[in-house]
Amino acid sequence: MAKPKPIPAITLPPAANPQQEGEWLRETLAQWLDQEFLPEAINQTIAQRAAQIFVRQRMEGENDLGSLVIAIVTEMQSFDFRESFYGEFAIANAVSDLLLESLGIDRCCGQ
Questions:
Q1: What's the distance, CA 8 to chain centroid?
Q2: Which 3 state secondary structure label does DSSP give 83?
Q3: Phi and psi at residue 90, to the nearest 5°
């Protein structure tokens, strides 16, 4: 029986304009959060925080999607999610899904 091959790491193109990427992510994530449950003011704050983490990581040269997701999970742990339906893992997964979708990569299998 053949061993399954691991899914290769997904690397984003180098950031040409991290601030613009961050603004796109903030807007897109806020829309996603509003559509998943109810539009709430806290969604804007969550999207802003996740985008800040993302931009800083990209400005530091991070292009690996897995590392970006871990950074968002780690840094969002200190965020107060009491007013939200979400938590740090949901936010990091949403960021990953939105980035994969923007790159035309199937979220299921990394293809």
A1: 18
A2: coil
A3: -60, -40
Nearest 10 degrees: CA dihedral of 98, 50, 32, 40?
A: 180
54/1 Cα distance (integer angstroms) = 40
Residues 46 and 90: their CA atoms lie apart, in Å, by 11
Cα(23)–Cα(105) distance, integer angstroms: 21
Q: Which amino acid is at 21?
A: E
Q: What is the pLDDT of residues 25-68, one digit of tens each?
A: 999 999 999 999 889 999 999 999 999 999 999 999 999 999 99
Quickly tell me which residue has 């040409």 as its tokens: 16
DSSP symbol at 16: S
